[in-house]
């Protein structure tokens, strides 16, 4: 089962990557707003793919949204094919093994897990808020200002067209 999951993940990500290479950033610039990816987000994505692309490909598999879109974004932002495949293989093996092992464990111990799940989720939420507040506040505020400027520019462009 793990082998089939790995192969499926590899093929799915490869399709997304090559679609991203084929359509490029022009697709994201044209339709990105539909997915919540405006000019500001695309600028940040390009910078982050160059800086942290490996982590996005490997650990992005563990979230439904990122699993579907990160390969496309990596392809459209120009990540090298060899690097993509290396990260894709590592991430697919890690993802398939982890998810199937967790599934088997959850079936065995589901009552205990469910009784502590709300504490686990609350801890993650509090940790994320504390992290952003103490370590990423300036970067977050810079992003907010850039996004506001983008929205104002789009509104101005729309008014000028009328």
The sequence of SSEs as H and E is HHHHH
Mind describing the biggest β-sheet? none
Number of domains: 1
Task: Give the percentage of residues in beta strands.
Answer: under 5%
Average pLDDT works out at 88
Query: How many helical stretches?
Result: 5
**Distance linking N and C termini:** 57 Å
Structural class: mainly alpha
Low-confidence residue ranges: none
Instruction: Tell the overall outline.
Output: globular
User: Cα-atom Rg, whole angstroms?
Assistant: 19 Å
Could you explain the architecture of this structure?
The protein has one domain. It is globular, with a radius of gyration of 19 Å. The protein is built from five helices and no strands. It has helices spanning 2-31, 39-59, 64-76, 81-135, 137-161. With 162 residues, it is mainly alpha-helical. The longest helix is centred in the middle third of the chain and has 55 residues, at 81-135.
Entry summary:
The chain has 162 residues and is mostly helical.
How would you summarize the topology of this molecule?
Layout lengths: L1 H30 L7 H21 L4 H13 L4 H55 L1 H25 L1
Helix pairs in contact: 1-3, 1-4, 2-3, 2-4
Q: Which features would summarize this protein structure in a list?
A:
162 residues; mainly alpha; 5 helices
